[in-house]
Amino acid sequence: MPEIIEKTLSYAESVNAALARALEERPETLLFGEDVAIPGGVFGVTKGLRRKFGERVFDTPISESAILGGAVGSAMFGRRPIVEIMWADFALVAFDQIVNQAANVRYVSRGALTAPLTVRTQQGNAPGACAQHSQSLEALFAHIPGIRVCMPTTNQDAYDLLLSAIWSDDPTIVIENRTLYHGAKQPVRIGGPVQAVGGVGLRRSGSDLTVVTWGAMQHRVLAAAERAAAEGIDAEVLDARWIRPLDLDSILASVQRTGRLLVVHEAHTIGGVGAEVVSRVVESGVRLSSPPVRIGALETRIPAAVQLAARVLPADEDILGAIRRVAHDVPAGRVEAMPVGAR
Amino acid sequence: MSEDTLLDVLEVMHRIRETEETITRLRLSEDIVGSVHLCNGQEAIYAGAVRALELSRDAVFPTYRGHGWAIACGVPPEAVLAELLGRESGISGGRGGSAYFTAPAYGMYGENSIVGAGAPIACGAALAGRFDGSGRVAVASFGEGAMNQGAVHEAMNFAAAMTLPVVFLVENNTYSELTPTRDVVRNDQFFRRASAYGMAGVRFDGNDPDAVRDAVADAVERCRNGAGPVLLEAMTQRIVGHYIGDVQHYRPAGELDAAIAAEPIARAERMARAAGVGDAELAALRQRVVDEVDRAAQAALAAPLADPATVEEHVYA
């Protein structure tokens, strides 16, 4: 295990550092996907890895079934493949290999075979992206027993969660976000023990309500929480960075203290992971002082034009409004009428 | 083929056939439930192919019509029958059933109920072999209907582009489930597609275990020599429906009779007789297998059911 050193890295560089460590420490790892090797990835995330690790890093045809099936098959035979699906939307053309194949390997063989593979992908809207390059699909993956799903948002998590996924003996989907790749560099601890999968990140401590969120949306949530603080609402923000397994205990511990729950995600709300979070909190019997609320994308497709997409996805004002609504126990539709600062 | 070899192959084909016939009886009596796909008539492919494979390192990826592959790879009929009967002693403990059991200890890495899905996985097995020094050859076997699946196209190009040791073995029984395959393609000579991928492609008589063995042996040798994947097309006929209960109303008059006349077991027996093997010896051989499979069925029926308390095991590490 390499000793811990701190480097100042972008999110993309943090992913790259994790991949480099995995390729260095685990000779059974392979890294492949479209454009990942010689070109270094369409977002530049895998730059330099081919040069350093040779044939274990290779480019593939534009063939998601072959990429994912190649991962399943090589994982069954002792490799630890890390594959890139360039956009989460593209996983749909080969969803069979994740849902029908990878998820069943261990179960049907009763543990005689396993599929310790990692799928790196990225999702979400960015300005100008079309409906087939904008979706937030974590609920589709998280619905499947046998699959692990995480969504790293901080640069540190981009490093840590990817390593946890690679070290895990289960098929794991790591959903990154391209709007984060080349953002601000931050100090990232490189090296040290690889953490087990699971757990939440506490992004803001607060006592009035618990906001559970994940993915790039949490930056808006944190901004909204600061504005709410100016109104006297002290929101706790949890990053449910592991969607499956969901760390319900940490969420419940927070909700028990605050008595209020808001879930914010970029994905659509119907059948979304937010529904799962709310259900499980309610089912736990924890006493809530106001009805739980979840917000996500509107019930429509994701349009390309910036001003249209902005209307579909939760905006800062939507999140702030929801925080007010939960904090003040205001029925839906009356949020706008709340005087700022009222408790 | 020597007389001993012919009788060995005949025994394997009998074991497959008798297992399938026993499954049919147990399905009709509803001891077995659900959808069951039999391989009667296609036995020569499995009995012939395994003679060219080293199952301690090679890996076979069949389909939901995979009982024959399993038996040919050496899975005991009792373990197959117990699987279909939902017994703990089933080869996959009742988790796989008829259409999705796996037997990695025998080199049989799983049936697959998704048409064509095993082909990319076989590429992965071959890819692993590139790094583990095993010299493994992966065999992806599927019906000609799967040749129209995107995943199979992707797998063939992937294997060819990367020079992976994969034998794509098409069991061409001329039906895509209930539809004549020639009705849904312009050209039903599937081996000709190989050249488009830069592979060798060979079509041969899939009811002749010798022809199958030779074709697979050539393909395996090519793979082991690093020459990349091969597409094999074994011509055969189902002499049963797509699934138990399929009355095959869609087959033209006379076709089934012709298929039965050409089926590999009777044909191998004719060859044995021509080579001087007596009727009594052939009858004794078959009876020995019938008795063996019958004992297997009794044992499987007497075995304990898989325990519902275990259904949540083996989901995660």
UniProtKB/TrEMBL annotation, chain A:
Keywords: Oxidoreductase, Pyruvate, Thiamine pyrophosphate. Its cofactor is thiamine diphosphate. Transmembrane segments: none annotated. InterPro entries: THDP-binding, Transketo_C/PFOR_II, Transketolase-like_Pyr-bd, Transketolase_C. Residues 9-183 form the Transketolase-like pyrimidine-binding domain. The keyword Oxidoreductase applies. It comes from the Bacteria. It holds the Pfam family Transketolase_C. GO terms for molecular function: magnesium ion binding; oxidoreductase activity. PANTHER family: PYRUVATE DEHYDROGENASE E1 COMPONENT BETA SUBUNIT, PYRUVATE DEHYDROGENASE E1 COMPONENT SUBUNIT BETA. This is Pyruvate dehydrogenase subunit beta. CDD domains: TPP_PYR_E1-PDHc-beta_like (cd07036).
From TrEMBL, chain B:
Pfam families: E1_dh. Its cofactor is thiamine diphosphate. Residues 13-307 form the Dehydrogenase E1 component domain. The keyword Oxidoreductase applies. Keywords: Oxidoreductase, Thiamine pyrophosphate. It comes from the Bacteria. The keyword Oxidoreductase applies. One of its GO terms (molecular function) is magnesium ion binding. One of its GO terms (biological process) is pyruvate decarboxylation to acetyl-CoA. This is Acetoin:2,6-dichlorophenolindophenol oxidoreductase subunit alpha.
